[in-house]
Amino acid sequence: xxxxxxxxxxxxxxxxxxxxxxxxxxxxxxxxxxxxxxxxxxxxxxxxxxxxxxxxxxxxxxxxxxxxxxxxxxxxxxxxxxxxxxxxxxxxxxxxxxxxxxxxxxxxxxxxxxxxxxxxxxxxxxxxxxxxxxxxxxxxxxxxxxxxxxxxxxxxxxxxxxxxx
Length: 165
What we know:
Blueprint: E1 6-12, H1 42-51, H2 61-78, E2 81-87, E3 91-97, H3 102-119, E4 135-139, H4 142-154
Antiparallel strand pairs: 1-3, 1-4, 2-3
Helix pairs in contact: 2-3
């Protein structure tokens, strides 16, 4: 099998979408592609909300810009091809071409954005900013890459984050 052309990386802000949510969710037992989501459960959702270490996190205006700048910077430093990026209020999508694992890309994105937000005084030193793990989809051909880019840039409720020059 050949190497993937790129990856679709998605990760959520801390506490922004908990298990049991009416929108559905994935967990350790329901996480494979094509499997049904975890069923909505107000009790599970409340239990998870009560376990949060800090308030649920979201990203607003300048925070979103700072996170995007950190991701663009790390891609430039590491030589990763950033094909699409959309920093949302409660999650981040990126399409990235790189010769490393998508898990390493996600961990690096979280680390760089966390450092940037803290350095700018936009996040507390002990505040959790990101949910555990996220989604790492392998894009094996040009059609899959094009579809992922379209999804990230044009299918997010009309909001679009423009990549810099």
